[in-house]
From TrEMBL:
Keywords: Amino-acid transport, Cell membrane, Membrane, Transmembrane, Transmembrane helix, Transport. It comes from Palleronia marisminoris. It is found in: Cell membrane. Belongs to the binding-protein-dependent transport system permease family. LivHM subfamily. This is High-affinity branched-chain amino acid transport system permease protein LivH. The chain crosses the membrane at residues 12-41, 69-92, 104-126, 146-168, 194-215, 235-257, 264-285. InterPro entries: ABC_transp_permease (IPR001851), BCAA_transport_permease (IPR052157). The gene is livH_8.
Length: 295
């Protein structure tokens, strides 16, 4: 029995919506790490996209060598966390509170990192292989059959979001992080090693970017230029949602990704315009972002 025109339209709408949700999940995982670093620590890390791409390449190499996707994610998280901690200790810790110097220094790091990765992995696009159990399609109402890997990405983003919110709002570490941002000198007077805490937070944020690189390389692909794309998306998500707010990053990722996906599906010529229209509208009404705190 042939589908009616209305049924085809509804099925297309459902597929586009699911694609938007999976893209929002990927944006959120990347932007949540950026929100921790930029929003909470007030560190302008313009090399965040490079950490994403490095994680994707590390995950690809480990997955190809071990045939284990989970080991690829774990290796990417560990390697990129170490790289992020090294970046914080060696460069950014000396520029605390100097936004312009941090931005310029990390832009330089991102340019060097992009050239090194291009020299090592070339300009080809890579696809990270999924386990057989995760590469299947499952029935979804209205949409028909949909990739299980994309549905698992949504679940993974939810777990990360809940975990980060609980860490920041329900643990002593979260209390220390928030206190260090609000009044660093007072926290240091209580005997807390604030620089060490900030290195740990930077490593967590970098690790999220690295793991997101493996997920993005699995669902989409790994190629040069992805670092700039995800840095820009993280900036927009954090600006829309509010600096330092994990729920804000989730809302920002959802708004940006859905606008981008619907725009490209229904009005391809103006797809990217909707994303920046959302950012401009939010900045006009709430300059601190939807869930950001007033300065």
């Amino acid at each position: 029995m042939m589908e009616s025109f209305a049924e085809i339209n509804w099925r297309l709408f459902a597929i586009v919506t699911l694609n938007g949700l999976t893209l929002a999940s990927l944006y959120f995982i990347v932007a949540s790490g950026f929100s921790l670093i930029f929003g909470l620590m007030r560190v302008v890390n313009m090399a965040h996209g490079s950490l994403y791409l490095l994680g994707a390449y590390v995950g690809f190499e480990v997955t190809e060598a071990t045939e284990s996707w989970l080991l690829g994610i774990l290796a990417a998280g560990v390697v990129v966390a170490a790289a992020g901690a090294a970046l914080q200790v060696s460069i950014l810790s000396w520029m605390q509170g100097q936004d312009l110097r941090q931005a310029l220094a990390t832009i330089g790091v991102s340019i060097v990192a992009a050239d090194l990765m291009l020299a090592h992995w070339g300009g080809s696009a890579y696809q990270i292989t999924l386990p057989t159990a995760m590469s299947s399609f499952v029935p979804v109402p209205v949409a028909g059959r949909y990739a299980m890997a994309r549905l698992m990405l949504i679940g993974f983003a939810l777990l990360i979001g809940v975990g980060l919110w609980l860490m920041l709002n329900r643990t002593r570490l979260g209390m220390v992080i928030r206190a260090g941002v609000d009044d660093r000198r007072m926290l240091e007077a209580t005997g807390v090693n604030v620089p060490l805490v900030f290195v740990g937070v930077f490593a967590i944020g970098a690790s999220l970017a690295g793991m997101a690189g493996v997920i993005g390389g699995t669902v989409l692909s790994v190629s040069p230029g992805e670092d700039a794309r995800y840095l820009l998306s993280s900036l927009i998500v954090v600006i829309v949602g509010g600096m330092g707010s994990i729920p804000g990053a989730a809302i920002g990722a959802l708004l940006v990704a859905m606008a981008e996906t619907y725009g490209l599906a229904y009005t391809p010529t103006y797809g990217i315009v909707y994303t920046f229209a959302i950012m401009v509208a939010v900045l006009a009404v709430r300059p601190q972002g939807l869930l950001g705190r007033s300065a």
